[in-house]
Amino acid sequence: MKPDCLILRLGELTLKGRNRKRFEKSVLTQIRKVLGSFPDLRYIPEYGRVYVELGGAAYEETSVALQRVFGLASFSPAYHAPLELEAIQEMALRMMQGLPKQPTTFKVTVRRVNKAFPHDSQRMNYLVGGYVLQACPGLQVDVHNPEVELRVELREEKALLYAEVIEGAGGFPLGTSGRALLMLSGGIDSPVAGWLAMRKGLEIEAIHFHSYPYTSERAKDKVIELARQLSAYSDSIKLHLVPFTNVQTSIHQAYQDNLLVTLIRRAMYRIAEQVAEREGLGALVTGESLGQVASQTLPSLNVIGRVVTLPLLQPLIMMDKQDIIRIAESIGTFPISILPYEDCCSLFLPPSPSTNPNLRMVEKIENSMSFFTSPN
Ligand code: ATP
Ligand code: MG
Asked: If you count DSSP H runs as helices and E runs as strands, how many of each does the chain have, helices first?
């Protein structure tokens, strides 16, 4: 049985009172965009929801596309029935029998929007529930904690029935929290950080530092591919590709000891901040996770993070690697991230990078290097 329409529930928006209209408009734009390849859909926005008449479009494909919309809390495939008791009972039964997994308990919840319908919602709960029960041996009613809640909306022109609720991507609609610069490496973490930032309503541009010819063209292509994959969740993503070889080799020529990674990191952050400010972006987003490597201990994060004054957003900071990988898999970046090409940060790695860099020492070394002090 093919669903006739989708009921889309817009997310966290209730929190946002006055901005609600803008938010709803923004989610709707994104919904229309991801469903753009289905020309026959009809959209009917309502308070906190959007009804989408499928007009024959395949539900499975639309539901995959909808997972890319931030600000969408959940959605349900729904079925139409004429406003007649028997037709509604019949449709309710067919839906219950067509569920992917047969439940042992259910309840019916009827909402009567159309007050001209002859039976009130209480009576309809009983009439529809009773009809399904007598046709499904083994099924029981549980009003408190049912496995399936079969909802019936008695609307002005027809009845709408649905039982499945599919979780959406959640978050805030794209761009409604502002714009930020994602520091995108070729690794597993930073694409996930970028996705989480977008889910919170940030529109992102990305910056990648490459050290050609020490790192290959393919390492760069991999990052372009990652940005492309992330752009499925937004309109498009501008990617700044920064040649970093000279900076890295200059630092390496002047200093080779255990603070090298810290110095290179700080140089990267400085450049990223300048690009962000030039582009009018309000924050940097990075993929650090506390304790994961030497540059991500608390003292390292302190010394590296101090170099910028823009808000530094590190969405993965408290997450376990397994949870990060799970997201990477679900957003399609994982297979790209694990391609073997080297990132520029693995260049010139000292044998034991400091896990406890001293800020004063780092600043002293930087002051002794002319390219840190003279304007470029
Ligand atoms: P990732 O999996 O994102 O590469 P990581 O665990 O390897 O992260 P680091 O190498 O310490 O961690 O990098 C920390 C963060 O610094 C990255 O998540 C990314 O945001 C940023 N970063 C690292 N290398 C680059 C690069 N070449 N270009 C841009 N940003 C980078
Ligand atoms: Mg990395």
From this structure: 13, 14
**Averaged pLDDT, 282-309:** 93
Work out the pLDDT band at 273, boundaries 50, 70, 90: very high
Q: Write the DSSP string, 300-331.
A: HHHHHHTT--S-EE-TTTT--HHHHHHHHHHT
Q: What is the mean pLDDT of residues 22-51?
A: 91
Residue linked to tokens 């995108």: 184
Task: Say if 5-167 and 178-373 have the same CATH topology.
Answer: no
- For 172-209, write each residue's pLDDT tens digit: 999 999 999 999 999 999 999 999 999 999 999 999 99
Distance 343 CA to ligand 1 centre (A): 9
Lining residues, ligand 1, CB within 6 Å: 183-185, 187-190, 207-209, 286-288, 292-293, 295-296, 343-345
Residue whose CA is closest, atom 17 of ligand 1? Answer: 287
Domain boundaries along the sequence of the chain: 5-167, 178-373
**Ligand 1 pocket test, candidate residues 271, 339, 345, most atoms within 8 A of CB:** 345
- pTM assigned to the model: 0.90
pLDDT computed for residue 19 by the predictor: 75
Cα separation, 165 vs 169, in Å, equals 13
Is domain 178-373 annotated with CATH 3.40.50.620? Answer: yes
Q: Tokens for 230?
A: 């992330």
Lowest average pLDDT, out of 44-53, 79-88, 221-230, goes to 44-53
Which overall architecture, per CATH, does domain 5-167 show? Answer: 2-Layer Sandwich (3.30)
Distance, CA 185 to ligand 1 centroid (Å)? 5
